[in-house]
Amino acid sequence: MQIYWVKINKIIEETPEVRTYLLACPQDFTWEEGSHTHFALEGFNAGDKPNRSLIRHMSISTLPHENAIGITTRIREQCSEFKTILKNLTVGDEVAIFKTHSNVPLKREGKNIYLLSSGVGLATFRPLLLDFLNRADNVNQIHSLNIDSSKQFLFTDVFASAPDKKVTSQFVDNREEYYEEVKNLAADKDGLYYVVGSDEFLVQNIKVLLEQGIKAEQIMLDKHEQQLAEFLPLHLSNER
């Protein structure tokens, strides 16, 4: 396993509670849209066993052509040891990244794609939308629906409706409106539905989509193969 120690080049305050850390790109480090990585702080591998409290599974919110590895995360006033340390890091400090993989690349099957997310989960979808805007081959259109009760919506520059580019984007701040809209979107029985958020959020979205007649194989989750069976009624390793 290769561990990359990389410098923080820039810290962007997206909202009062959300920051994006732009990390330097090692020459041989590559990734694709929908990727996540293990993001670790200094000291995580100092002992005989990795200190898991200093490691988090994070989505990469950028694409390689942006020349930065973007990690976008919410840091509340009351937060974990990991987030407390992260909050105090500054430009020039180093963090580690390793085990990078994508569970949710953009499927180019000539269908409509629906991106369903909660809060900072939108960071996972930013590269998918950018990839589509760069190359629209074999995707009919993309619709993004994000719920964030803080009303401080993320990446509104990227997630902006552009009918000429076959992109529509919605932000809502309450669950009732969100799930009604999910039901409306599920009228497309041939679409692909990507869902990113907490496990509870995934379970509720899957329930609504299945009730509307969407098949399990049309639902894409940012989970490893072995985890999919915990959320979907069928283990779809052969489908994916």
TrEMBL record:
Protein's name in the database: Dihydropteridine reductase
InterPro entries listed in its UniProt record: FAD-bd_FR_type, FNR_nucleotide-bd, Riboflavin_synthase-like_b-brl
UniProt source species: Bacillus mesophilum
Superkingdom of source: Bacteria
Coiled coil: none
FAD-binding FR-type domain ranges (all copies): 1-107
Gene Ontology MF terms: oxidoreductase activity
